[in-house]
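G., the chain you wanted modeled:
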Amino acid sequence: MALIAPSPPSSSSLTNEQAQAILGQHVEKLILGAESETAFVEISLLARNNFSFTFSVGVTTSGGRRNVFVKIPKIDMRGSMPSILPITFKDRDLAKEEESSLKLLDEKWQADDVDVRWVKLCGTLLEYNALITERVFADEAFTVFRRFDLRRRFGFRQDGRRLRGSMARLGAALGRFHHANSSSVVFRLAEALPKLEFYCREIAASTGSLWPERVLGQLQSMGDMEVTGVEVPTLKGIDIRNVLIDGQDRLYLLDPGRTKVTHRESDLARFIMTYRILYWGSKLLLLFREPDPKAETAFLDAYYSNSQPACPGLLNFFLLKEQLKHWHTALDSLQRRPWPSLLKYIVAKVYVNPFYTRQIMAQLKLIKKWNK
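Predicted structure as tokens:
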């Protein structure tokens, strides 16, 4: 539902806080229908990440309380002075793509029985490029899953079971969605190589590592490979960092991003890699590296129980592609940080490069074994 709000005043004259205040008033009136004389309105502080501004609006009236979440997609704010206004064409494309994905998921996602749901779209305010969804009161699964995994390591078996159970339900729900909207397609490695070559050359130039060239050599030797696979609507935002979990272990998914019809392994690899970096950003990464592999297996087993049979070769390839992409993004994000050059060098040398080198070494072994 696209709602009409007055166009923003001259964008150059508004601070982020002023733009938020005006937008919050429109959300209050147009989405929540609040009457200013009787309603109690709460608007949260403005938050931002690399690709959006967000805040929540809560309105209490005689009829009860309603809470919504406002998201203003932005193309990329890494290393820049972030500003809500002006809104660019690329910003609008991001919002339109996410709105389309949320509408598709509202129609096609069927997983209420396993307590895995996407947030509901309430409407949009096109003038401000804003998406408004129902607000979910739950914790970030990224943090909760890390706690489950830590406690599992110290003998708390129930936490290990909760982690594996949550991952299995996520896999089952995604498998249903894919299976209901699938078709056969042929995967040709030669068509995918240019993007991988870009990642490998960029990483090699930045790190001096020999592994990107080894990856390229192996893949180029398999360049004529063709495999029959499954094509589905995939979601750019299928990421464990976009999952919330409440006190009853109900799971809620946010920020689906753009929907693209391609190989299902693209979604699987994307989600698995965000699970594997559960300790990323924490000092615990140096101790534990990766979370429970049994939970990853539970995710895949549940996925394939609701979908067509697995194709291990394709999954191995897409995992390798995702690892290279993550490595490239991590190095790029590190360089954009306002840190001294020496600190950036140390973080890359001690933290980033060893992690992804281990991932790629293991994945390349699996690919060589499968290609024999």
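The CA atoms of residues 323 and 359 lie 7 Å apart.

Shout if anything looks off.
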